[in-house]
Design a protein that fits this description.
By secondary structure, the protein is of the alpha/beta class. It is built from three helices and five strands, in the order αβαβαβββ.
């Protein structure tokens, strides 16, 4: 499944490469497709595509390996945010980014 918002963002990035050109990009919650990250990786210095679901990360790695050259500046990482308490809005990261 590919969200309509991901399709739109991917087309915006493809039509406007200056948005990510030479920059470092972090995509949070890219799920298994990672289409925005793959488009951004064509122009960016580095792209880190993340998701909190290990199954999604496995599928994302397969998708990247199938659709991007090995020279692409795209890294994939598991990323989780846990709330310390339901009464506070201070998250802590359990994965380095």
């Amino acid at each position: 499944m590919l969200w309509e918002s991901a399709r739109l963002m991917a087309s915006v990035l493809a039509e406007n490469p200056s948005i990510t050109a030479g920059k470092r990009v972090l995509e949070l919650g890219c799920v298994c497709a990672g289409i925005c990250s793959m488009v951004a990786a064509q122009y960016a210095h580095l792209v880190l595509a993340t998701d909190g679901d290990p199954k999604a990360i496995n599928l994302l790695n397969q998708n990247v390996a199938t659709n991007l050259p090995t020279t692409a500046n795209l890294q994939v990482s598991l990323f989780r945010i846990f709330l310390i308490s339901c009464t506070t809005a201070n998250p802590f990261l359990s994965s380095p980014i």
